[in-house]
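Format notes (please read before filing issues)

Several people have asked whether sequences and structure tokens are stored in separate files. They are not. Every record keeps both together, in the order shown below: the sequence lines, then the token lines. Line labels are part of the format and must not be stripped during preprocessing.
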Amino acid sequence: MSMFEDTRYRWRETYFVLFDARNRPTLEQVEKALQRLKCRLIFRNQEADDRGRFASMTVLSPEDFAALDICYTGGKEVTEEAEELFRELAGPDCSKGDRARLEKLRRATGRFEVLHFEQILEQDDEDDMLDPSTLLMVLETLANLTDGIAVDPQSGTLV
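Then the structure lines:
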């Protein structure tokens, strides 16, 4: 079940972690890496392919009033999108450090889509409850695990 189907949450944004598909981790590797984070996460709907490689999962972070749907995509769709993102991000204002990171985009054949959801509360200040800490830690963990690069495609920035 996607978090889109859960009326207690609303979608906020989508991030990508782009990487060489040869670095696609197993579901077990992803779970272990995320369990090492210093926050209490709840895993749901974990799925792997027939070789045990990560396919998708939902991560709930009650402390942050957030949830993440994470799913893997590979193939031509990813390579085309990665090339487009590279062209957008590698402009004349791009620093040398960012340019080196962007080279990973050129080799990307796999992608994790990380959909960020906010828990809806019945309080007036519900917008103040969402904490992006878990999102940022999960993006960093997935990027490190795959030797990939995290990108906010909406704003065209590296995370």
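For reference, the curators noted about this record: Residues 118 and 127 are 9 Å apart (CA to CA). The longest helix spans residues 76-89.
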